[in-house]
Amino acid sequence: MRLIGIGIDVVEVDRIADALERHGDSFRDRIFTESERAYCSAQKRPALHYAARFAAKEAVAKAFGTGIGKDLGWLDMEIIRRPSGEPALELSGAGKGYADTHGITEVKISLTHAREYAAANAVALG
Questions:
Q1: What does the DSSP 8-state code read for residue 114?
Q2: What is the number of alpha carbons within 13 Å of residue 37 lying toward its C-beta?
Q3: How confident is the prediction along the chain (126 residues), in pLDDT tens digits per residue?
Q4: Minimal CA–CA distance to 79: which of 115, 38, 125, 44?
Q5: Active-site residue, selected from the candidate residues 57, 70, 102, 113
Q6: Which of 23, 44, 62, 70 is catalytic?
């Protein structure tokens, strides 16, 4: 397996909390899948979990080298939690097509968060 790209992102939790408060469902629906919204909203501090997933999606876009746009949209990426608790990425739509075309067969992600910041990294492998 070869390394195709790596990405990292750090987000201020308050920035995401402000976006959630100001823009509500329009922000949530544009950035997060239905499953992500259900998971984050059920947590004690939803903004913390939204921020970690936002950071993960940015990290994936950096690992792909595409940014967020026509090749990889916000909703093409879903951050899931495996039964073990490990975060994982599921791709769909243009993101899956881009990965398939560019030989990306696996993307490893890691999330972390504290009171003020959430961070994630992504490693694209093929």
A1: -
A2: 13
A3: 999 999 999 999 999 999 999 999 999 999 999 999 999 999 999 999 999 999 999 999 999 999 999 999 999 999 999 999 999 999 999 999 999 999 999 999 999 999 999 999 999 999
A4: 38
A5: 113
A6: 62
pTM over 0.90: yes
Alpha-carbon distances, residue 66 vs 28, 30, 43, 58, 77 (angstroms): 22, 18, 31, 10, 13
Do 108 and 122 form a contact (C-beta atoms < 8 A)? yes
Report the amino acid identity of residue 15: R
Residue 57 appears among annotated catalytic residues: no
Q: Is 62 a catalytic residue?
A: yes
